Structures are given as structure tokens and as C-alpha cells.
Amino acid sequence: MAENYILECSGISKAFGGTQALKDVQLHIRPGEVHALLGENGAGKSTLMKIIIGLYKQDEGTITWNGKPYQARGPVDAINQGISMIHQELNPEPHLTIAETIFLKRESTVGTFFLNKKEQNRRAEEVLKKFDFPFGPKTMMKDLTLAQVQMIEIIKAVSCDAKLIIMDEPTSSLDSEETEHLFRTIRDLRSKGVAIIYISHRMEEIFEICDRVSVFRDGTYVSSRDMDGVTRDELISMMVGREVKNIFPKVDCPIGKPVFRVEGLTGKGFRDISFEVHAGEILGLSGLVGSGRSETVRAIFGLDPLESGKIYLDGQEIKIKNPRDAIKRGICMVNEDRKGYGLCLQRSIRENISLPNLPEKQAGLLLNQRREKKECQEAAQMLTVKCASIEHTGLSLSGGNQQKVVLAKWIMATPKVLILDEPTRGVDVGAKSDIHTLMCQFAAKGMAVIMISSELPEIMGMSDRILIYHEGRLNGSVDRSEIRGGSVTQKEILEKEFGGK
Amino acid sequence: MAKNDKKVLGMDQDSFRMFMGKYGIGIVLIGMVIIISIMRPRFIQPTNLLNIFTQISINGLIAYGMCLAITTGGIDLSVGSQLALVSCILGQLVGVKNMNMVLSIIIALAVATAFGFLNGVLIAKFDMFPFVVTLSTQLIIRSIAQIISNGQAVSMTSSVFKSIYSGNFLGIPRPIVYLAIVVIIMYIVMHWTRFGRYVYAVGGNVNAAIASGVSVFWTKTLCYTISGLLAGLAGLIFTSKTGAAQANIGVGYETDAVAACVLGGTSFAGGISTAPGVLLGSIIIGCIYNGMNFLRIDSYYQSMTKGIIIICAVLLDMVMNKKNR
User: Fold this and answer.
1) ipTM of the assembly?
2) Fold that domain B57-320 belongs to in CATH
3) Could you tell me the maximum CA-CA distance found in chain B, to the nearest angstrom?
4) Residue B2: which of A60, A303, A322 has the nearest Cβ?
5) Partner residue opposite A358 with nearest CB, options B3, B194, B208
6) Spatial distance between the Cα atoms of A218 and A214, rounded to a whole number of angstroms
7) What are the residue boundaries of the structural domains of chain B, listed by start?
8) Using alpha carbons only, how large is chain B's radius of gyration in Å?
9) By CB neighbour count within 10 A (0-12 exposed, 13-18 middle, 19+ buried), where does B6 fall?
10) What is the pLDDT of residues B22-55, one digit of tens each?
């Protein structure tokens, strides 16, 4: 052992049933480094992390932690040994206070049974102060934003004296400012000697924050490199094993008549929003998280009530009371919350795809199951859903493939207006570019596409026109020609998102 | 390299798990039948088998309604008193007022269906907890049954009415025919119709169902309405069986129905159930009653056995369906 590693995983293999999730992989982490873990979904990153924190047990291979053989019996045991994981999907207990969350399972007590709330709040206050957290220890978790909940998770990990923190897609629901804040925290932790395993699909972030990178592909280890002297293209080709030339395969297609128009939409979180979308156009809604983009489209789709404003489809004013009205009119929406609003995971892929499209598959009183099967099969193939059979449940799919199933169900409905809220969040590079290609195909078929994304490059790469939100209002728009011509840059859009003119 | 080499019954462990996960309950049933048959060969004779199916018809009907309620993530505790209500209405209309029998039956079933609809509206429209709603309507319905019967049992001596239960159709006892019809219809409803899909979607992920344009209100309401109707039918058969209309029947029947659903693989988390599973579950419950009588085990032990078997069956199901880790 020439180098000094805090965590050494070697020769790890793990199989689930017949599928080999990990094959002889290694991962070496130095103390105090930010180590990126890259790979498409299904490359085995999550599986390895779950082995490290003791949720799974490896079939073969050894893990050494601080020079000693290591095997966690579960996440709590891992935390006790100094390894914490911050999951991509945070599940805060809404009715606990911040202090109760931080000290969950290791409460300050008087004697053995009675809680010492005062002492606990004092200790919480102390750690919160260290991180300049803007809320006190008695604040309820339900009053925090997602970014703040995540911050609490990090504070919790640090207060448990973690020497290694695993962050799985930590920025997937953060806006640019919150991301910057997170990076400051990460740098701070690094300087204190805490090692961080950073899993992300966002290349820019990895270049910004990470010291080293390990790449996985299809359950195998590809290589580890220092971030200095490695290029983005190299990393991407290591991940997919081929060169990816254009990340945003936007194909321009003729833009037709205006299809969909809203006027003066006002509701919770957004005021006086007016815009129109043409057939064949991809309209990007850009803005910070919480600036009212998702709230607007949720209200358009009938998930939330509108306070005022008018919606026009093909020139006719329409009223949308619930999603059923919207779908009937040909307005479909892929929700940002895939698990919450996207799929019934325990049901089959086929049932999920056909759910909004069942009226068309009716034959008398019954469903025409043969036709349903055939059409779902075709839709799944068109969207390149990777599955053994469409009769398998949604649980058997990776995140990217679940998202494709959500897309499949709306494509089958052949919408006039397709709303995509964060369509590629938490999706691997391959699936991401598949989804981008599909978006262009939809536009080419004459759909009006409205896309929300928190990734500026994605918005700029895919949109024909960009509307910029700032605190619930529109603060300017940008045309594709301006981006192409280079007269508008990321920086300028970002400035508008922050309220600049 | 990481293959599981342990063999169980000639299968490797993973395929054994898959197999048991899918057919475990069926195997439990076969095992039970074999054991009881070895001890009492008469158990397996056709007359006794017909007997068992006749006995389970009432619970089977209730169980299918219960299954719909549980699949949407709820429960229907009011089914037992629905039996009593239907019985008392029949007692008053047919037994006391001598009204036309068909008309009386239609009225009685309509009332039970209406109460099912009421359950559904309260649960779906006002988002109340199904447990609380049906616990309350159970009390209300039972009370109405007692009021209209004034606590008096009415004997139903009409041979036509009694033949609803005791009659035969091509040599098969009528209750079995009713059960078969309901099983077939419920199979079609649950697995071949739009409504069935919506039931599974609402139970599986109510937000995804809403976002896919499913009307949660109508889906849930219809489930409880069907449950009311099926409980009403069960009440009709029960009254015909005993030949007496009384307000104290059906107590605890919801337990057996829930048990049949759970044994049949219906998930209390919602979104998972199958029509054949519920039938299997009902048959197992029937075999427990019938088999224990055959083994001359005191009836006091029957409930205990039922409880133990349900826990074991669910435990088996959990172990078998657990992901390999």
C-alpha cells in the first residue's frame, strides 16, 4: 500500500438474482478529498454505495476503512464508524424540529429515559451556528426548503463526526445559489479532512468541486483519474465507451402557428404570467428553483388552482379544473416528481404506460388487451426503455428508464401541448440524450413543448425560446438566434434569474 | 461468480423464491388439504368439497368487495352489518308485509348498495379515513337493522325463498353458482376493464393516478358501492340459509373477509391484489373451518388457528417476496 487511503474497496462483486450489478470493482478514497463517482444509471454506483453503508452485503471483495477490515451492518452502524450518506431523495420527518432531526437516535437525555430538550437544543444551536444556518433548532423540518433539509443532513453527518460523506446527486433539486452554498460547505469540509464521495451527472459541477474521479461502466470499474488534466469529452467517452460529440442534439424544425397561450396567470408562487407556444416550438422556462416555473405549469395542468388568468388552446379559451380536463384537451405534463406523480411503481410497465390512454383501448365494456400490449410494446421500444418485458413492475427499472416510461405514457396520448418539468433530472447521460432527441422528434411532429430545467446548458441547448422567471414573474426572454449568435450567454441569463435587467 | 448454489427441491434458491412468491398460497392450501385428508380421508370426498364451497360462498362474496376497498388503500368494516340490514329488510317486506319477493330483494339490495355508496362518498369526497368512516357506518347500519326489526327475528318459511340457498343448479348447490358468477365478473372487472386499472392506479399511487387523469372520487366511490352490493347479496344468501331474518347476524364477518384478502395476496399498502388470489384465500378460510370440524377440534380453537395461519401465510409471503440482499 504505497498511498494512504481512508477507504479501500477492492474486488467487490454483487449480483441480484441473475443480474450482475457489480463485477470486481474497486474504489480508493484518500482522506480529505472530494472524489467524483461517474457512470450512467445502472453502472453500479448506487449499489456500491449501498454496500458501503451496509444496506447490501457484497458477494465478494473486501473493504478496508482506516486500515482495518470494514463491514457495516446497516446505515446506523456505518454512521457510528464514521461514514454517512446523504441520499438523493431526502425524506425529512416533517413534524420533528431541526434539533430532533440532527440528534435522532442519539438524543440528549437525563438518566436513561427522559429527554433533555434544553441541552439538545443548545447543542443543535452550536452546530447550526458553525454552518451559518439561518434557522434556529426549534424550527420544524416541514418549514424548510429542500436545500435547507439537505443542509441539515450534512450538518447531521458532520455532527456525527463523519470522516466520509457520500453525496448522491446532491444538487439535483438545488438552484444555482444553493449549489454554490453547498460547494462552499464541501470545500470547508475538505479542509477539515473529511473525504467526500460525490455522485453527480452534472459535469460542470464535477469539474468545479472534485479532486479525483472514478468512472464505472455497466457494473465494472473503468479507471480513476485526477481531475486536473482530464477533459469532459474523455470522461464522457470513458462512461459510455464511445465518443459523444453533441450533448444537445437539437434539431431545428419549422415553427408553426401559435397553439397555446396563457394570459395573466396568477396563483400561488407566480403572478401575471403571459406567454404563447407555437407548434413545433420548444419553449424553455428558466429560473431559480422556487421562482414559480413548476407552480405555473402545475396550475396549467390543473394540479393546483389558478387565482386568475386565461388559458387559450387553438385560439379558444379553455377552463381546466383538474388534470382530466387538461388531458382531454391534449395538454399533458411530465411532473418533476417522478415517484410522486409519475408512476405506480408496483404495477407493470404496460399498465403505467396505458393508464391515461385507456379510453382509446376500450372495446365495448372491456379493454382490448392485445392492442394495448402491442401499442405499449411499441411505445416502450420507441423510447428505448430498457426492460426484460413490459409486464415487469416499475420497481425493476432504473431512474432514467422510469422517466422514459412516464414519457411513453404521454406520447401515446399524442398531446398538442407537452409540458416537461425537469425531464432529465437524475437521469444518466445516455438516457438524457435519448430524451433530448425524443423532444426534438415531438416538436417535429408539431407538438408545442414547454420544458422546465434547472440546468442552464440544457435550457440553452434545447430551447427555441427561453422565458426567464424571477420571483414568480417573467423577467425577460431570449431567442435561439441570440444564443446561437453568442449575443446572450449563460451569465446573462443567470443575471436575469437573479433579478437583473 | 456470485451465483447462489444452494438448492431447494431441485431448484436453485432464486427460482424457488420466485416460485413460492407466486404460488406460495396455493401450496399452503394444497398442503393443508393433504394433511387433513391423510388424517380424515372423508375430507377430500366430493360431497365435502361441495360442502366447503357452499360454506365459503358468503365470505367469498364479501371478500371481493373488501378486496376492492383494500386495493384502493382502504377497508370496509361495514360489511357485517350490511348482512344484518338486508336480512331485516327482507324479514319486514317478505316475512311481515308479504310483499313480492323479487321486488323485496331488489329493495334490500338497493339499500345495501346505497350505504356502500355513502361510504364511498364520505371516503372519497371528504377524504376521511376509510377505517373511521366504515367503523361508524357499521354502527349506524346495525342500529337501523335493529330498529326496523324491533329486535325480533322473523322466520322466513317460504320454500321459494329458502331455495335461494338450498336449491340446485345442474346438481350444483346454488350458492356455489352465485360465487362462481361473482368470481368471474370480478375477475373481468379487476383485470380486463378500465375501472380495474384505475382501482390499481389509485391504490398504487394516488397522485400519479390524478396526474394521469383518473377520477379518484368515482373510482373509490364505485369500489365501496360494489362492496355494499356484494355484502347485500351475501346477506340475502345468509337469510335464505338460516330461514330467519335477524339483526344480530354477520358480526365479525369483516374479519374473515379481510383474512381471505390478505391470504390471497392483497396488499394493505394498496395497489396489489388479484381476483384468483381472493378466491384462494376464501377457500383456505373455508378449509380451516371445515377441516377443524373434521379433526374434531373444539371450535374455541378455530379463531386462534385462523389467526396463526394468517400470520404464517403473510410471513411466508414476506420472506419469499423479499428482495435478495
Assistant:
1) 0.85
2) ABC transporter involved in vitamin B12 uptake, BtuC (1.10.3470)
3) 78
4) A60
5) B194
6) 13
7) 57-320
8) 21
9) exposed
10) 677 788 888 889 999 999 898 989 999 999 999 9
